[in-house]
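PROTOCOL LOG
Step 1. Enter all chains and additional molecules of the complex.
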Amino acid sequence: VQGARAVGLDIGGTKLAGGLVAADGTVLHRHRLATPATDTEQVLETITEMVSTLQSVAGDRTLPVGIGAAGIIGLDGTVRYAPNIAWVDYPLRELLEKRVGGPVLVDNDANVAAWGEYSCGAGRAARSSMAMLTVGTGVGGGLVDRGALVRGASGFGAELGHLIVIEGGPPCPCGNRGCLEAVASGNAIGRAATEALAAGAVPTDSSLHGLETITGKTVTAAAQAGDTCAIELVAGVGFWLGVGIASVVNALDPEMVVIGGGGMNAGELLLGPARVAAQERILGGGPAGRDMPPVVAATLGDDAGVVGAALLALAAVGSRR
Amino acid sequence: VQGARAVGLDIGGTKLAGGLVAADGTVLHRHRLATPATDTEQVLETITEMVSTLQSVAGDRTLPVGIGAAGIIGLDGTVRYAPNIAWVDYPLRELLEKRVGGPVLVDNDANVAAWGEYSCGAGRAARSSMAMLTVGTGVGGGLVDRGALVRGASGFGAELGHLIVIEGGPPCPCGNRGCLEAVASGNAIGRAATEALAAGAVPTDSSLHGLETITGKTVTAAAQAGDTCAIELVAGVGFWLGVGIASVVNALDPEMVVIGGGGMNAGELLLGPARVAAQERILGGGPAGRDMPPVVAATLGDDAGVVGAALLALAAVGSRR
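Step 2. Run joint prediction.
Step 3. Record the structure below.
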């Protein structure tokens, strides 16, 4: 649709990012607000306000609206539960459609980010399939197969961060143990550093000793600054990311694997070891066998969710017509 | 297509099963031959002979032919490699189409079995999605999403037996370690019993001491006969099957999980513990969360591959028209 636009929102635990997005994925206007995570009424009001603002900017109060939110989200846009906001069986789509003009679509944050990267980011070259892992506080997943998102029977699909890669392993925020998220997230980088420090395994000349707080972010920054120990810790988490990638490739054979999220600030320090571990583990890998699909960095950065949500909303409107 | 029929073949390492199959999945005629696994020329001749025989029975030399074979099989019907037959980049579909009448389709054995179960077996009640795991010597996988098999970008998709569930775990025939196949196959049942015997962990009154050979089959038979130790060993492998099921459910959210293959002779002794382990591990499981999809036994038995291959071939002809 030439000239078509939509509103896209990415609802995080701390901030709400929104954008007015053109059909080619260009973000025409950006808006950002803090998420009032304590109160679901206030969250709904803030979302409504942001949608209205962006629709006003567009001069069209009926523009389609796409929402990406962390959580388990049903096909009907009901949030079964969310890690950051007190939503339990919360009919977000329905409530929002009563408050704003235009059709509303709600999907998981990693799903919409994957759709963004597939449509106009790192996955643009893929003909019809792509897997995405977002490495942030946790690990999110999105899958495109046969040109569309794999949402599953209930909409809970593509939770690739909860592939179990080391049964009985470190605890995962989901309550399980050994999920990919438990070993390959930004938090896992921070935890690995904390453990190394506690075990006295960090050389005295490492800059890690001087950090005020030990988090995935600060350790990644130290690695980028050349700290050998931090580089090793990031590589260790990259290894686990590669184990997860191998599982995804064996199960789904995507044309391409895209890695996004804040953890990708580590760039090749994370991706390099991930590629090696994945290549060694795919079925039929090695010289005589199949090729490993490309494992590449996401290119849309913080816009992936906003762009993907908006484009999904546009596509949904298109398919209804 | 009323009255439509197709030929289906299931090519195993030791036997070749074939059938003339009606569009509703009824097997009208069965044929069985030994697989001459040593020589690829002879295998091709035997396959050709079986197809010809079944087409003759049908009185139609142009019936569509569907083939299911263990191995990594490209979208064009080329076998990249197979575990039991010396096929390497072997253009099975192309070679066969030169020798027999009718269009030929070649796919992975677990994929066609999954299609059989989805079309007219245990997955019949599923509207549009289903995951299947076949527990035999190894563990095969098949996925249906949005009403069609997930074949992936190259056709290598749905190798769910090579989801890595315990990184660094027991060796898998694929060369990797800790794959689902390494811990949840019939072979894993036999290995668990061998290890328990070697460790002196099998009570003296267990019938396992009297077995001539320790294999998945004999241990499963002992479990079915009520041997407590054998029951525990089968349950231990069922646990791992459940870990794999949880990964599949988290990644793909199928409506239903179907378990087939020879290992299912153990029935609920395997499935019961698998269900418990899976339920405990799915994202958002538990009283307040999402429901676990049904995990059920396959119903087509040895016919699943033959029926699925034939119906896939019929569907392919239909979509070409």
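Step 4. Note key features.
Chain B touches chain A through 55 residues (CB under 8 Å).
Chain B has a mean pLDDT of 94.
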